[in-house]
Write a structure and sequence with these properties.
It is a single chain. The protein is mainly β and about 500 residues long. The protein has 5 domains: about 5-75, Sandwich (Immunoglobulin-like), CATH 2.60.40.10; about 80-225, Sandwich (Immunoglobulin-like); about 240-320, Immunoglobulins (Immunoglobulin-like); about 330-410, Immunoglobulins (Immunoglobulin-like), CATH 2.60.40.10; about 430-505, Sandwich (Immunoglobulin-like). Helix content is about 0%, strand content about 50%. The strands form 10 sheets. Strands 7, 10, 12, 13, 15 and 16 form a 6-stranded mixed beta sheet that branches. Strands 19, 20, 22, 23 and 24 form a 5-stranded antiparallel beta sheet that branches. Strands 27, 28, 30, 31 and 32 form a 5-stranded antiparallel beta sheet that branches. Strand 2 and strand 3 (about 30-35) form a beta hairpin. It is elongated and about 145 Å long. The N and C termini lie far apart (about 100 Å).
């Protein structure tokens, strides 16, 4: 293919006509004569050649002027590196600059270039599918060093910018000395000359972007040539590792071959027929979510290499963690302090429980009433008077796991007598210690002097002890030293001023 260009120049008053002299980089020349206008199309020339153009005027007297100062240009067709209009960044080298860039045939110790330089004559050839490492060194004014960030861009698709996926390669760590950036030229990179840009900036300053204008550091551009390579075989991933296994999650990592563009992950429970497929993974790690606890899984991964897909990796088998047991059922469920409209249910808790679900219903009913509590007692209300009810309780543990329900306990609410029976207020009572081993001290704060009765029941409702004492106004103590078996007991204290039921635990 050949090219041409249109030229124009300022007229000379005495000129009869003009001459254009073209000199090419191989030394050949072409003279265009008898040009009567001040614009003209030049001769055909090859792409990407150095062309020198000069103009002279032939006067009406027959004299010819000297040729003008040469206009030099490179004809289009050199490739994206020179033909495209790339943005030109700006930076300040007051404190730091790019000292050197080394990549294949480029070994440029450039020093301070006032923020930006284009080294169009320093070039090298890179091959698709191959891996390369650039060595980048910062320089500093006055010997004071700073943390610097390096970024390297290559316009692989030759569209005149560095914004496309895969065109930016950055060192994740800031540095004060030589650092390296390793990259693979993608298989779909266009062949021919294209632009490479190296950027360096102060780590605590503005972000190093390809077109920045306020970076503390420097930029350098180079022309590189991309040539097609032979794609390596599309192998399956290797060293698939399952780690960080939880109840419902599992972390996976693997090693992928160089031509990989993405990965496709398959997994399923061992007993299942169908695989769950996760396509388009661009990293070599992934976390599976929403798995079933205490289940065995199989996993395999394939590599996508653009137009081809590898075989699957060896199938890896793993098992998710099992949920903690929640098999201890609350014990000693009992009903105390029954009224016409309520009943207090108490039970012995379990070590794993974080809460309890209690259910109750009238005897023979199909549906249960239900509530949740973090305590080891619960007041059932409102209830119908003179009615037999059933109640049961279960433990709730972490991760939504629950125990079986306890055995059903039946009880009856009090019946109406036709007499006014006011509810008694609670006595002011505290017990210590609770749980206890040999004896427990009962502390009462009497609002008025009077007789107080004490009754001790086991969880089946059996009366074990009854005592009466006349207590004065104010604080009094009552020492209980019964020979009891370990377990849960209910202590009822009743006086004219009120009534209280306390749960005691004997160790």
């Amino acid at each position: 293919d050949t090219l041409t260009s249109e030229f124009q120049w300022n007229p000379l008053f005495a000129a009869d006509h003009y001459q254009l002299l073209f000199t090419f980089e191989d030394g050949s020349t072409i003279l265009l004569d008898s040009l009567t206008d001040t614009t003209a199309w030049g001769p055909a020339y090859l792409p990407c050649v150095l062309v020198t153009v000069q103009v002279a005027a032939v006067c009406m007297s027959g004299d010819t002027t000297d040729f003008s100062t040469p206009l030099m240009f490179v004809s289009p067709g050199c490739g994206a590196c020179l033909d495209n209009d790339y943005c030109e960044p700006a930076a300040s080298t007051a404190y730091e600059y790019i000292e050197s860039v080394e990549l294949e045939g480029i070994n440029n110790v450039s020093g301070d270039n006032d923020g930006y330089a284009f080294f169009e004559d320093m070039t090298t050839t890179l091959t698709t599918y191959q891996q390369y490492t650039a060595l980048l060194t910062p320089g500093f004014q006055d010997g004071t060093t700073y943390d610097e960030n390096f970024v390297l861009w290559i316009d692989f698709n030759q569209d005149g910018d560095f914004d496309d996926p895969g065109e930016e390669m950055a060192d994740p760590q800031s540095t004060q000395t030589t650092t390296s950036i390793t990259f693979v030229v993608p298989g779909d990179a266009l062949a021919g000359a294209t632009r490479m840009r190296v950027g360096m900036g102060y780590a605590l300053g503005a972000d190093v972007t390809p077109c920045a204008t306020e970076v503390e550091g420097e930029y350098e551009d180079y022309c590189i040539t991309i040539e097609p390579g032979v794609p390596p075989p599309c192998d399956p991933p290797e060293n698939v590792v399952i780690d960080d296994i939880g109840f419902f999650t599992a972390g996976i990592s693997w090693e992928g071959p160089l031509p990989a563009t993405s990965y496709e992950l398959h997994y399923k429970e061992t007993a299942a027929s169908n695989w769950t497929i996760i396509p388009g993974l661009t990293q070599t790690n992934y976390t599976l979510m929403d798995l079933t606890a205490c289940a065995e899984y199989e996993l395999r991964i394939a590599t996508n290499c653009g137009d081809t897909t590898s075989a699957f990796s060896e199938t890896v088998v793993f098992m998710t963690d099992c949920l903690p047991a929640c098999d201890e059922v609350p014990a000693d469920l009992a009903i105390v302090d029954t009224t016409q409209s309520s009943a207090l249910a108490v039970w012995s808790g379990t070590a794993e429980a974080i809460s309890y679900t209690i259910q109750w219903r009238p005897e023979g009913a199909a549906n249960w009433f239900e509530d949740e509590t973090q305590n080891e007692d619960y007041t059932l209300q409102p209830l119908d008077s003179c009615t037999v009810y059933e109640v049961r309780v279960r433990a709730n543990c972490d991760f939504s796991v629950s125990s079986e329900f306890s055995e059903i306990v039946a009880f009856a609410t009090l019946c109406e007598t036709g007499l006014f029976q006011p509810e008694l207020p609670a006595l002011s009572v505290s017990v210590s210690p609770n749980p206890f081993k040999d004896e427990v001290q009962i502390l009462l704060d009497m609002e008025e002097a009077g007789e107080v009765s004490l009754k001790l029941y086991n969880t089946t409702g059996q009366l074990l002890l009854t005592e009466r004492r006349l207590l004065p106004f104010g604080k009094s103590s009552w020492l209980l030293k019964e020979n009891l078996l370990p377990g849960v007991y209910l202590l009822e204290l009743r006086g004219s001023a009120g009534r209280t039921v306390v749960k005691l635990i004997k160790e």
